[in-house]
Design goal:
With about 80 residues, this protein is mostly helical. It has 3 helices and no strands. The longest helix is centred in the middle third of the chain and has 22 residues. The radius of gyration is 29 Å and the shape is elongated.
């Protein structure tokens, strides 16, 4: 077993490399960052498209409109 790295060291190495790669891809001042920005912009466009064609839940019967004017404040129940 001499000369072979333990499994946990291999896992740590893979995690570090993938983290650095993700940071490099998302950095806005690199060409890869510009690629990530383009992908993000495409996600926003497709998100709008998906929302525009998703079914609407329709009006809710649970909404109540409450209006209060000066006459309502003169009632004794609202003086508390």
């Amino acid at each position: 077993m001499r000369g072979r790295a333990p499994h946990y060291l291999v896992g740590i190495g893979i995690g570090l490399v993938s983290g650095l790669l993700a940071a490099w891809l998302c950095h806005p001042q690199t060409r890869a960052g510009l690629l990530a920005q383009g992908l993000w912009r495409m996600e926003l466009v497709t998100y709008d498209y998906r929302l525009s064609y998703s079914p609407s839940p329709g009006p809710s019967a649970e909404i109540v409109l409450v209006t209060i004017d000066d006459e309502s404040f003169s009632q004794p129940q609202l003086q508390r």
